[in-house]
Amino acid sequence: MENNTRKNPSVAVIGAGMTGILMAIKLREAGITDITILEKADKVGGTWRENTYPGVACDVPAHMYTYSFKGNPEWEHRFAHGSEIQQYMEGVSAEYGVTDMVRFNESLDECHYREGKWHLTTSKGNQMVVDFVVAATGILHHPAYPDIQGLDSFKGDMFHTARWDHDVSLEGKRVGIIGTGSTATQIISELSKTAGKLTVFQRTPQWIFSVPDKDYTEADKAPLRGNQSLMTKLSRRYAFMMRHTFTAAVTGSKMAHALISWLTKRNLRKSIRDPELRAKLTPDYKVGCKRLVISSKFYEAIQRKNVHLETTAIERISEKGVITADGNEHELDVLILATGFHPFNFMRPMNLTGRDELPIDTAWAKKVQAYRSLCIPGFPNFFLMLGPNTPIGNYSVIAMSEVQAKYVLKLIDHWRRGNLQTVEATEEAKVRYNDYLKAGMGKTVWVGGCQSWYLDPDGDPAMWPYSWDQWVKELEEPDLDDFHRATPAEIVPIHPAEKAA
Ligand code: NAP
Fold first, then answer.
1. How far is the CA of 222 from the centre of ligand 1 (A)?
2. What confidence tens digit (pLDDT) does each residue in 188-227 have?
3. 339 CA to middle of ligand 1, Å?
4. Which one of 148, 167, 191, 327 is most buried, counting C-beta atoms within 10 A?
5. Averaged over 466-493, what is the pLDDT?
6. What is the dihedral of CA 154, 155, 161, 162, to 10 degrees?
């Protein structure tokens, strides 16, 4: 089948965050014109729109946390601040004409597959019928509120980190923060400078790896302007370093793990001189078992005079503050919940049913799984970007989305050429793929006896346990035998030199 006779599918992209923007750009590059983007909020940006807490930044180097086709010479810091990334996302989205395509303040409520098409109903009651749905809904966007007795009885101000209340002034106040994950450590580093008293309620200590931040000067930025290949080189250099250190360390390389462990433990030893405080901050699990926190500021912050690290378990919340198991009541003006997210909700609570009216909750009743993280058997022509087992250590999520986007585009292209009547992975392929993932978990550090958001309710890490290069290689070309094919007709190959568009 020639290019000009390819079917032109209609595609709905759900979410205009980093992945949704990328998908819209790539779909258009592939010559697909019938694209609808639904966004629940009033702006693009996803996680960077939602997380506006003090100190919010990306702990992946900025030049690596960019789209490969659109470097940003204007990054102000080695670890870009949240507002810079939001600005970058808005800029790319506008430049590539994505923003104009987005239907803002409109979420997808109903999504049902019937007779070969997806039937959608949005929060505004609008209906549409499309060939493909791409859920670019992100992973960490459903705030997890702690199940602590009396939480609602607190009379002061209280909010989750992803729902920051900027009307509440924290200067000079008695502030409590529950949690010590990547989010909390960024907030603590910042708030410790202004809060009257900051009490950190730590349930489990975290390993902290220090990489100093750097303010980029005009001299750093000037050579990058208009020089995409230089920015690509820079990005690749960071990516190479990340792959061979952090990613290798968590996925089985003993040498990389020994190095990262040594540096992390040395950071704790050198930064915290008080043996009692050091003991409180020392985890009893392997470095990297929980997602490694990258911070060069946290240890300094936790030692400030106005900061108290509380390690006694929280018993309940009172009107006045937090009551710990030793009977102490920590009186607070503001309580911040840095208690993370529900990582297994993905596109839910959307009412999603696939073939034969199969609800997603039924498909995932036993386990949240997908084939190659993207395709869920029973849900034809539906792709879940950054789905289960996508996250790869401390790597750039943008790079992950780009690899997945290429794979999805190739599958859609097979559909356009008639090689696949629908794009639906078989149950057998999904099981085989997930068995393969499980077989690799034993050598990773995630099964090192710690609790983390990486683990599903069965205690299995929803991660990719092999190398980054392996992941990229396996997503290079879809294996059509892993998909339902009504007619095992001759496959029309995609010629490498042929542009998709
Ligand atoms: P998180 O890593 O899941 O941490 C949640 C924290 O809350 C943990 O310290 C946890 O303690 C504590 N907690 C939860 N429920 C509690 C309870 N009932 N009582 C006491 N403590 C409780 O969440 P996060 O810090 O928001 O980070 C989530 C992920 O977001 C990160 O791992 C990272 O992937 C991403 N992130 C990335 C960046 C970046 O710079 N790229 C920045 C922020 C976040 P336990 O450890 O005992 O469970």
1. 37
2. 999 999 999 999 999 999 999 999 999 999 999 999 999 9
3. 5
4. 191
5. 86
6. 100
